[in-house]
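Data availability excerpt. The first of two example chains:
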Amino acid sequence: MQKITIDVIKKSYFSSYKKEKLKLNIKLILYKKYVNAIIDMVNSDTRLVRLFDDNYAILLRMLFVYISRSISIKQRVTMITKDMDFALRYFPNEFFHNKSVILSEINTDFSINLRRNCMNCMEGMWQIDVCYKKQMVYWATFSIGEGYLVIGSIQGGNISNIRELIKLSTKQLYGLRPQQLIVWLLLEIAKLLDIDRVTGVGFETHIKTTMSRRLRRKNIFFIDYDTVWLDYNGIKMPNKFWHIPAMKLKAIEDVASKKRSMYRKRYAMFEKISSDIKLLLEINK
């Protein structure tokens, strides 16, 4: 497979962001060594070249802004390369061809999917989502590396009947809201990989915070992630990110008798999903 070059990336970038030609050229001069570091990393393995072959421009988008505007470009390069290391170590070959893979099928209607983030790569290289009959109900984006997992965004699907789908999903998921399942999934992946540091981006540090006024003028809803993480007993840290602690599951004997059957089914679902993820990512193999 042909290796990528800065000219190939620029061509891809300009086809998507025609008005940013001058701005990009200036950034390429200022950040030349960092751009080269990312290119070298991708060219080091044909699987990575294949992973980004549909849009090489996103490599630069992530390099210029990634997860939080408070993160320096040196830190961004480290995070992006760690993301790629993680993919090479754990993702099956089919992921690099398809840019996605099914992590687990809860039943005939619901699936959990891992994808390369194609919607907004600046919020994290990876996306995990819950789909009902291939309709995206809820999803989150994240970055993962040695010793950490950071959540860049979490939200419901952008479809007209999303409220009805969330209600249906909650019933089908044994009383568990899709957002709760997504958070549990990320915490479980971290647990399986022996990662004890799971954080979520806060309102003040999110990449869209500085754009919030423009977004509101366009009637685009802007999520206050501080409120989201508080719902999961998050602890705000000095760097304005939130530490997300492990979820505590109720013991069956502490659950009201009329709900015990539902909780048993929920916990059985958790066990199946965890087992599927472990097998697919070849953890401890």
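And the second chain:
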Amino acid sequence: MTDKLNLQRLDHDPRLPMRGSIDFERVLYVRLYELFRAIAGVTNQNGEAISDAISNVTTQLTEDINQAIAGVTNQIEEISGEVDSLTAGAMQKSANLGDVDNSATARNNLGLGPASTRDVVSGDTDYSGGDKLVTQVWVANSMNSYVLGMGQTWQNVLNSRWFDTTYTNTTGRPIMVTVTSYSVIEDAELTLYVDDVTVGAHWAGWGVGTQLTAVVPPGSTYYAVPNPWDGMELYEWAELR
């Protein structure tokens, strides 16, 4: 083996057999082996320097990559902060105005007029009070629930009513009661009571008819009393309910 291989002299080495001889390939193999040994030796001698150089390059490259990543991260954070500041308190389209902090102020700012600053009743039977706008259905329900005659009809209840018997209005709304009778004696009186208060009274002679009418609030009691008790004959009893 030789430590220093002179490639220029390789072709003229007297030890090489003539080309085409049996030993030429063997000797060529040996020379190639010596060549790679020499290259390996050079590499080994400078391996530490090469390793240091690679390490330095790797370290520097790693630092550069980390700095680049840090820079990008900072930019992302800055952009994110700007986005947050721009969207803080912003309304979301998907909320359909449901995320407005003060709906009355928002409506007023839109110039929709004083009525727009009022809340609408929450339902068709919302009677919680307050300065609210009402709907047509709410008005209709309210009238049907409280206004006498709305959604009510006159009913003949003669077969289920009699004198001096107390009845209670359990319909939940006002009703109107009309009692018709006629006197069977010379002088008789019919009195109509609501919650034990006289709301109508009439004297009549023999054969003369008497009719008394009164409004009965929800939950109130009502009854009709003749005087004397057998001086009147019940003729009709109708109720608007």
